[in-house]
């Protein structure tokens, strides 16, 4: 409904936090504030939250009445405005079970006498927490080591031996698209090695500055392979 209002310099909406980072599957609350000046006249208040970069309507309160007709299907059943905070001049939008597709720029528009808006950038991450690993003998003192994990954004896989020497250029890493825009990253290293050695595969998520490490053990008579 933002196009219906003339924005005024006298009425100012603020966003205490212009960047929110949340992990996929968790809940997030985004906030914008506005001046109330005394008791809130609920029927004079209009609030709109929209996903600005994709023009998707997230939530509408028009003259004190909630309107879910225009809400985009991406957000159905996952959106709540904490109305008890409106009296304090706080528009708190809660998104539950956050999806990767929820990431983007949101615009909070408030009309109450005057009108104004602020934007909030929502980033969604999915760390590569669980690394499935495989160790298979392919010949005398030759081994195929495999690490596989799912996450977002795309991660680099680094291989090292017990002396932390970099073996990454000897590995083959492939990327597939899994559910909900996740990346499934599978990295394989074929190496000549004696038994009782250890190797490290490290999933390095450069954008988030996060890494997760798995330790692969080469045992005397064990071949194991546990992937999805």
From TrEMBL:
<dbReference type="Pfam" id="PF22705">
    <property type="entry name" value="C2-set_3"/>
</dbReference>
<protein>
    <recommendedName>
        <fullName>Ig-like domain-containing protein</fullName>
    </recommendedName>
</protein>
<feature type="domain" description="Ig-like">
    <location>
        <begin position="22"/>
        <end position="121"/>
    </location>
</feature>
<keyword id="KW-0812">Transmembrane</keyword>
<keyword id="KW-0325">Glycoprotein</keyword>
<dbReference type="InterPro" id="IPR036179">
    <property type="entry name" value="Ig-like_dom_sf"/>
</dbReference>
<dbReference type="InterPro" id="IPR003599">
    <property type="entry name" value="Ig_sub"/>
</dbReference>
<keyword id="KW-0393">Immunoglobulin domain</keyword>
<feature type="domain" description="Ig-like">
    <location>
        <begin position="127"/>
        <end position="196"/>
    </location>
</feature>
<keyword id="KW-0472">Membrane</keyword>
<dbReference type="GO" id="GO:0006955">
    <property type="term" value="P:immune response"/>
</dbReference>
<keyword id="KW-1133">Transmembrane helix</keyword>
<keyword id="KW-1015">Disulfide bond</keyword>
<dbReference type="InterPro" id="IPR053896">
    <property type="entry name" value="BTN3A2-like_Ig-C"/>
</dbReference>
<dbReference type="InterPro" id="IPR013783">
    <property type="entry name" value="Ig-like_fold"/>
</dbReference>
<keyword id="KW-0732">Signal</keyword>
<dbReference type="InterPro" id="IPR007110">
    <property type="entry name" value="Ig-like_dom"/>
</dbReference>
<dbReference type="GO" id="GO:0009897">
    <property type="term" value="C:external side of plasma membrane"/>
</dbReference>
<keyword id="KW-0675">Receptor</keyword>
<dbReference type="GO" id="GO:0071222">
    <property type="term" value="P:cellular response to lipopolysaccharide"/>
</dbReference>
<dbReference type="Pfam" id="PF07686">
    <property type="entry name" value="V-set"/>
</dbReference>
<dbReference type="GO" id="GO:0007166">
    <property type="term" value="P:cell surface receptor signaling pathway"/>
</dbReference>
<dbReference type="InterPro" id="IPR051713">
    <property type="entry name" value="T-cell_Activation_Regulation"/>
</dbReference>
<keyword id="KW-1003">Cell membrane</keyword>
<dbReference type="InterPro" id="IPR013106">
    <property type="entry name" value="Ig_V-set"/>
</dbReference>
<dbReference type="GO" id="GO:0031295">
    <property type="term" value="P:T cell costimulation"/>
</dbReference>
<dbReference type="GO" id="GO:0042130">
    <property type="term" value="P:negative regulation of T cell proliferation"/>
</dbReference>
<dbReference type="GO" id="GO:0042102">
    <property type="term" value="P:positive regulation of T cell proliferation"/>
</dbReference>
């Amino acid at each position: 409904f933002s196009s219906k209002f003339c924005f005024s310099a006298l009425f100012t909406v603020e966003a205490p936090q212009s960047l929110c980072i949340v992990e996929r599957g968790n809940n997030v609350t985004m906030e914008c504030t506005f001046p109330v000046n005394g008791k809130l006249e609920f029927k004079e208040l209009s609030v709109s939250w929209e996903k600005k970069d994709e023009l998707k309507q997230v939530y509408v309160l028009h003259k004190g009445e909630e309107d879910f007709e225009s809400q985009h299907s991406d957000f159905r059943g996952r959106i709540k405005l904490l109305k008890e905070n409106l009296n304090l001049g706080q528009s708190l939008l809660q998104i539950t079970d956050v999806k990767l597709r929820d990431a983007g720029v949101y615009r909070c528009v408030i009309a109450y006498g005057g009108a104004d808006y602020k934007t909030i950038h929502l980033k969604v991450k999915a760390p590569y927490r669980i690394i499935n690993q495989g160790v298979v003998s392919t010949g005398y003192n030759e081994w195929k080591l495999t690490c596989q994990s799912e996450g977002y954004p795309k991660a680099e896989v680094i291989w090292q031996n017990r002396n932390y020497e970099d073996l990454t250029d000897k590995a083959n890493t492939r990327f597939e698209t899994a559910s909900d825009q996740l990346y499934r990253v599978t990295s394989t290293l074929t190496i000549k090695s004696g038994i009782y050695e250890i190797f490290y595969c490290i999933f390095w998520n450069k954008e988030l500055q996060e890494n997760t490490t798995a330790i692969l053990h080469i045992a005397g008579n064990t071949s194991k392979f546990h992937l999805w």
